[in-house]
Design a protein that fits this description.
By secondary structure, this protein is an alpha+beta fold. 31% of the residues lie in helices and 50% in strands. α1 packs antiparallel against α2. It is globular, with a radius of gyration of 14 Å.
Length: 127
């Protein structure tokens, strides 16, 4: 669990900072990866970075504060399934408006030689 906690901390930091290098550390490179989110569906690391993480997060928001809660982890050998709720506080670049969104997320992660990595993420807004 400790290593998965470290992965989740890096995930939160990668959202809050829109840091591509940090994101590279936490996503799997050996299999097909995907990210399903309300704005679309990204397949592969490059699409995830272009369309969601860097595109949406860095271009739309000047400030981001992503917080996880109610984390549940189920282990299946060298894979694990995570489910949690989140709060996202941000400031829009174009209007300076403060926003607060809530959602749910499921993640499928795999254990590689250098630690746990994201393989698939699916999130949706709550409400």
């Amino acid at each position: 669990m400790e290593r998965i906690d470290a992965l989740l901390k890096k995930y939160v930091e990668s959202v809050n900072t829109a840091n591509e290098e940090l994101a590279r550390e936490i996503w799997d490179r050996e299999g097909s990866i995907s990210f399903i989110h309300p704005k679309g569906y990204a397949i592969g690391f490059d699409e995830i970075m272009e369309h969601f993480r860097l595109g949406l997060m860095s271009e739309l928001f000047s400030k981001r504060d992503f917080k996880l809660k109610d984390i549940m982890i189920k282990y299946y050998g060298n894979t694990a399934f995570l489910e949690f709720r989140w709060d996202f506080y941000a400031t829009r670049k174009d209007t300076n408006d403060e926003i607060h969104a809530q959602g749910r997320e499921t993640q499928f992660i795999v254990l590689r030689d250098d630690g746990w990595k994201f393989s698939n993420i699916h999130w949706s807004p709550e409400g």
